[in-house]
Amino acid sequence: MGSDTAQPHPKSRGAARRAMRRGPTIDDVAEVAGVSRGTVSRVLNGARYVSPAALKAVERAVRSTGYTVNQSARSLVTKQSNAVAFVLSEPQERLFEDPNFSVLLRCCTQALAEHDISLILMLESSDAERDRVLRYVRGGHVDGVLLISAHSGDPLIADLATGVVPAVACGKPGGPESAVPYVAAEDTEGARQMTRHLVAQGRKRIGMIACTQVVGGRERLQGYRDVLGRKAVKRLVVHTSDYSFAAGAAAMRELLAESPDIDAVFAASDLLAAGALAELRRAGRRVPDDVAVGGFDDSRIARETDPPLTTIRQPLERVAADMVDVLLRLIRREPASSRLLPTELVKRESA
């Protein structure tokens, strides 16, 4: 059993059956493969200098015995957990309300799985949750962090910026926390695209439902102002604390009260736009005849509203893939930098 040849042990079939019954060990894999325990260990840990024949024999033995690597034991040797935290800085209900989060979660999970890395979902919407996340991260349970919807001034971003573990943010973190690399859509240009479209439709009094709790939201507001200039008066802009349906409805109600002659509104997310559509319907305003409505995201919500929503598409699948790519580069201590991805105007019936 001490050689590194690929010839199977004469009793390998019986050994495999015994291993399946009582739970396989690395010694069982070595016996079935007809190689040394050290060779099996090197194969399982991805080491080089293993002959192709021995590699095939070990892989075959792993399948026949049903052996799985003890990740805790491997972590003691490699100092890596093979896990990444997906930290969502929102209340639990927002995970299920906003389809953007589910897309990011699904795509990040798939991208990490290609590297045999597990994703751990963690919520961080209170001081207690933030402390728990930091304890977990500092405890060496994850190799890196994917930050989702982190708000400006969030202490967690500042902590991660010190290099506790590699981290990547979805969207620009901004402020002194900008040391954390990010992957983001071109929010300012996307907002310009939507505002220009509404102007081209002949709309004269274009309002905006803005969310400036995150850098991306502030950039969307800036894009709106870049196009309208002095026409972007204060009474035409309502600020919300989040991107929720309820916030969109409340903001639309305020806009109608402050500017009843409004003939278009740009909402900084599809969920905000869906809330605005509901409030316009309640107020008896026709869309787009009386008021045109534009959103931002091109989530499934944009296709399900009545009428379907004209919006700005941000490529969330690519955002997720690039976030994982940047994070894995950082974990491997390779050069990596922030990335900005282009947006696209998607025209539907609301504007």
Keywords:
Rossmann fold; alpha/beta; disordered N terminus; Cro/C1-type_HTH; 47% helix; single chain; 434 Repressor (Amino-terminal Domain); elongated; 3 domains; four-stranded parallel beta sheet; six-stranded parallel beta sheet; Peripla_BP_I; transcription regulation; DNA binding; 351 residues
Description of the molecule:
This protein is an alpha/beta fold. The chain has helices at residues 12-22, 26-33, 37-44, 52-65, 71-78, 92-97, 99-113, 127-138, 155-161, 187-200, 215-228, 245-258, 270-282, 300-304, 316-331; strands at residues 83-88, 118-123, 144-148, 167-170, 182-185, 206-211, 237-240, 264-267, 292-294, 311-313, 339-341, 344-346. Helix 13 (270-282) links the parallel strand 8 (264-267) and strand 9 (292-294). The longest helix has 16 residues, at 316-331. Residues 25-61 form the HTH cro/C1-type domain. Pfam families: LacI, Peripla_BP_3.
- The helix/strand order is HHHHHEHHEHEHEEHEHEHEHEHEHEE
How large, in whole angstroms, is the Cα Rg? 26 Å
Shape: elongated
Largest sheet: 6 strands, parallel
**Mean pLDDT score, rounded?**
88
Q: Tell me the fraction of residues in β-strands, as a range.
A: 5-15%
- Under CATH at level 1, the class of the largest domain stands as Alpha Beta
Number of strands: 12
How many DSSP H or I helices? 15
CATH superfamily of the largest domain: Response regulator
Strand order of the largest sheet: 2-1-3-4-5-11
Annotated CATH architecture of the largest domain:
3-Layer(aba) Sandwich
